[in-house]
Amino acid sequence: MLGKIFSYILLAASLLFSFAPAKKIGDFDLSADIGTPKLPGISEYDKDTKTYTLKGAGYNIWFERDEFQFLYKEMDGDFTFTADFEFEGKGADPHRKVGWMIRESLYDNASHISAVLHGDGLTVMQWRVNKGEKMRDPEDEIFSKEKNIQTIQLQRKGKEYTMKVAQKGTPLKLVGSQTMENLPDKIIAGLFICSHNPEVLETAKVTNVSLIQN
């Protein structure tokens, strides 16, 4: 009898634990490695400095699947995301990436659009039109004319996504817009980092984060 009672107590405790709310990370709900990169990543938030630290690996965000560390929350409706991004160190690959990402799901081949800063200064909006399709160069990207970017903004109005960027202390400038018919109203949105090298973990700091529901 005591054994049964103990079993029920354990079951009740496990159910309570499973339904306990996840601890938020700043303005975001959860973090996860997408596409099972070889090296596990992590996302952290310092509430005193209001700074996010993203560490992640991953072969790339391209072709028909992605690998990266993602700090995210569910969103619907129109919104404007703005933040300042800075890599730590010189980096192992010039195409390491950090920025904003909007995805239809957490599957590694999901349709998505992202506003990306590369380690070599290349700044671009890029997307995968349909789930499982290969991303195309140059059809699925718009390049910024600006270099040495600090601030990246990604805005959604209906099905249209618009990217703006700025160098430190300068006004935002338009990079371009893209209509994404396959992205649903309720999406998964947040910050990401990808090392562009499966054997390397890269780090970036993200500050002045603003999530505005329009």
Describe the structure.
There is one protein chain. The protein is built from one helix and 16 strands. The longest helix is centred in the first third of the chain and has 17 residues. The strands form three sheets. Strands 1-6-15-8-9-10-11 form a seven-stranded antiparallel β-sheet, with no helix packed on it. Strands 2-3-16-7-12-13-14 form a seven-stranded antiparallel β-sheet, with no helix packed on it. Strands 4-5 form a two-stranded antiparallel ribbon. It is globular. Helix content is 8%, strand content 49%.
Biggest β-sheet strands, sense, barrel: 7 strands, antiparallel
Would you count the extended β strands for me? 16
**Helical percent range?**
under 10%
Separation, N- and C-terminal Cα atoms = 58 Å
The SSE string, one letter per element, is HEEEEEEEEEEEEEEEE
Helix segment count?
A: 1
Average pLDDT score: 91
Order of adjacent strands in the largest pleated sheet:
1-6-15-8-9-10-11
Tell me, briefly, the overall form. Answer: globular
Q: Class by helix and strand content?
A: mainly beta
Radius of gyration: 19 Å
Q: Beta-strand level of the residues, as a percent range? A: over 45%
Low-confidence sequence ranges: 1-20
